[in-house]
Amino acid sequence: MSAESNRERQKRWRERTLKESDGPQLTRLQVYIEPEAAADLEQIVRKTGWTKRIAIETAIKKLARDVN
């Protein structure tokens, strides 16, 4: 029996996540950011224990509240 590659597992996860009606409805976001911003994100993740996704979602939601 061959081991499933990381790429295959990720593909299955993406397909499953996009199909789940009762699970999180996610949108793929792929961006390049400046090294200083990336370092800030890493620091936030280390200090809070959050995932990068949670840190980014939290920052976006806070900014959206602030500009409204």
Descriptive terms for the model:
single chain, 68 residues, mainly alpha, 3 helices, 65% helix
Question: Could you characterize what this model shows?
Answer:
The chain has three helices and no strands. It is extended, with a radius of gyration of 16 Å. It is mostly helical. The mean pLDDT is 89.
Give the terminus-to-terminus CA distance.
55 Å
Q: Name the overall outline.
A: extended
Number of β-strand runs:
0
Classification by helices and strands: mainly alpha
Largest sheet: none
What is the chain-wise order of helices and strands? HHH
In what range is the share of β-strand residues?
Answer: under 5%
As a percent range, the share of helical residues equals 55-70%
Rounded Rg: 16 Å
With helices defined by DSSP (H or I, 4 residues minimum), what is the helix count? Answer: 3
Give start-end ranges of low-pLDDT stretches: none
In round numbers, the mean pLDDT is 89
Give a quick precis of the structure.
Helix content is 65%, strand content 0%. It has three helices and no strands.
